[in-house]
Each structure stands twice: as C-alpha cells, then as structure tokens.
Specification:
The structure holds two protein chains of two kinds.
Chain A: H1 2-11, H2 19-40, H3 44-64, H4 68-92, H5 108-129, H6 145-154, H7 157-178, H8 182-200
Helix pairs in contact in A: 2-3, 3-4
Chain B: H1 4-23, H2 27-55, H3 62-92, H4 117-131
Helix pairs in contact in B: 1-2, 2-3, 3-4
The chains are: A mainly alpha, B mainly alpha.
C-alpha cells in the first residue's frame, strides 16, 4: 500500500505539475482573490461585480475538471440571474454608490480569527488526506451534456421532480413575501386621503 | 490532476464565505457570502465526482446531480432571501443586520416587553428571516 502511494507520488509529483494543474492554479488564484475582494470591499456594487469574477472563475474550473454541463449551468444561473437579482436587491434597498463606511460590522476581527482558523484546519486536513490522490482527466469527459442528461433522467428523476415543486414553492413564497400586505396598503391609502383632505381645506 | 488542488481551493473559498457571513453588516452582502460558500461546496462535489467516476467506476454521478440540485436550491434561496430583505427594508428602512435586534434579549427588557403594535409586524419578518 505504502509503495503504491509512493509510486503514485513518484509519477505525479507536486513539483512537476501538468498543464491542466497550472491552469487550474492560476484560475484558482484569480478566483480566490476575487472572492477576498468580494467580502472585503466597502463599495456594495463592486462586491456584486467581483462576485461575477469569482463565479466565472469557478465555471472555468468546472471546465478544467471536464464538467462542461455544470460549467454552463453555472454561467447561466449564477452569473446570469443570481448576480442580477443581487444587484436589483442592492438598488432597491438604496445602497450607496460610493464607499459605505459601515459595510463591515464591529466583530470583524473575531470573524477573521474564526475564518483563518477554519481555513488552516480544513486545508491541513484536506492536504493530508488527499496528497496522493490522482484525478484521471484523460479519456471521455465526465460531465458532458449527454452523460449528465442520461444520469439525471435515469437515476435522479424523483429528486429532479421534487426540486421543480420546491422551485414552484419558492416562487410563490417570494411573490407572497414581496406583495404589500392589505393592512399596510389600506393605512397608507387612508393616510394619503387624510393628507389630501388637509391640503384641500 | 491532484485532487488536493480543487479541494484546497474549495476549502479556501468556503472560509472566505464564512468570513463574509460573520463580518458583513448589510444583509445583501451576507447573501453574497452565502453564495460563495455554496459554490465552494459545488466545486468539491464536482471534483470528487470526477475522481470517483474513474477511480471507483461510479456510474451514478451523484456529485454532478447534487451540484445541479444545489445550484437550483441556491437560486430559490436567493429569491426568497431577497424578498425577505426587501420586506424588512420596507418595514424598517434599513437592511443593516446589526440594527434588527427585536428578538434579542437585553437585561433591561421586561418579561412582557413593551413592544408597540407597529414593531410586531417587523418581529414576524425577522422570525421569517431566521427560519429562512
């Protein structure tokens, strides 16, 4: 077993990375940097735009891992709709365009400590566990549309349908939540009429 | 490719999202950080799926199916979350999480806190946010 692992490290050393690994590393650095800027910038709209870079970088990583279908779904759903929704939310809550000094809360240093500790622990465990594991990317791609479609509709049909019900429920819930309730609408109307009456008098 | 590369990247992205959730004050920025954490999990799922489909001859491709489900659920979550944030903003005029402290207990509050009727609606909103 040990000799096998040693042989694996011999053939695929970290010091002689393949081209895919170099590409993955570079895109990963860009993605991680964009993620850092997303959570630290004080300009709210810029945070959403840096999130686009992060999600796009992740789509490229999916492509490098030969999961084509998921990469394009990522581009369509995340970059296409989620970020647009977030920008809508920022605009509707009248987010300031310039720098907002109160973007970060007071417990920033506690958050930083927790995050760095979690990152150190996770990276250590993950590197220790998967140091010698080799992902074979050669041969047929693992995530083409044909493969994904066949597994989704052969083995995962029931969860897929349940998911569509969940999406419907989420849609209805979002509409109910964002509709003005009758009571507030009525009070607003009476207030307006009272004000008009005052003005007329 | 070594499995360590995507695994480490996903761990780092997850912790970045964790920092954002804990440190941000605007509710929409917190939602963005949650998206970062979900994406880190997706990267992990895809990487392990590609590994296992070759190494363990896994024909079920559970990682990719679960990634698609996570993406759909994240889209639903962001829709509901933004609806809640907008409802809170309409009721309160702020989307600042530190100021939404109606359900927090403070020592000077009486047992039957003298909450006026107007803030009762906002309290329900906040409960909805907590359960979401």
């Amino acid at each position: 077993m040990n000799t096998l692992a040693a042989a694996a490290t011999q053939t695929h050393g970290f010091l002689s990375p393949t081209g895919v690994e170099i590409a993955f590393l570079l895109v990963g650095l860009a993605t991680f940097g964009a993620a850092i800027v997303t959570v630290t910038t004080r300009q709210l709209v810029h945070a959403a735009l840096w999130l686009v870079v992060t999600l796009g970088g992740l789509a490229v990583e999916y492509l490098l891992l030969t999961a084509e279908f998921i990469a394009w779904v990522q581009v369509l759903i995340y970059v296409g709709s989620v970020v647009v929704l977030l920008l809508f939310g920022l605009m509707l809550t009248r987010a300031p365009i310039g720098r907002s000094p109160d973007a970060d809360s007071g417990n920033r240093w506690a958050a930083l400590t927790v995050a760095v500790a979690a990152a150190a622990a996770l990276v250590w465990v993950v590197v220790d566990a998967f140091r010698t594991t080799w992902v074979d990317l050669d041969g047929a791609a693992q995530g083409t549309t044909a493969v994904t479609g066949s597994i989704l509709f052969q083995h995962w049909v029931l969860p897929f349908e349940a998911l569509s019900v969940l999406l419907l429920a989420a849609l209805v819930g979002a509409i109910v939540l964002s509709r003005k309730s009758d009571r507030t609408a009525n009070t607003a109307k009476t207030a307006t009429t009272a004000r008009t009456r005052e003005g007329n008098r | 490719m070594h499995l360590a590369y995507p695994a480490v990247l996903s761990a780092l992205l997850f912790c970045t999202g964790l920092y954002g959730v804990l440190a941000r004050r605007n509710a929409i920025l917190v939602l963005m950080s949650v998206e970062l954490m979900l994406n880190a999990v997706n990267l992990n799922l895809v990487a392990f799926d590609v590994w296992l489909s070759k190494a363990a001859r896994d024909t079920l491709h559970s990682g990719q199916a679960l990634t698609l489900f996570t993406i759909a659920i994240a889209a639903a979550e962001i829709g509901i979350g933004l609806a809640i944030v907008l409802a809170v903003y309409r009721g309160r005029g702020t989307s600042d999480i530190d100021k939404l402290r109606d359900t927090a207990e403070s020592p000077d509050d009486g047992p039957d806190g003298s909450a006026p009727d107007a803030s009762a609606v906002a309290v329900t909103d906040e409960k909805a946010e907590a359960t979401a």
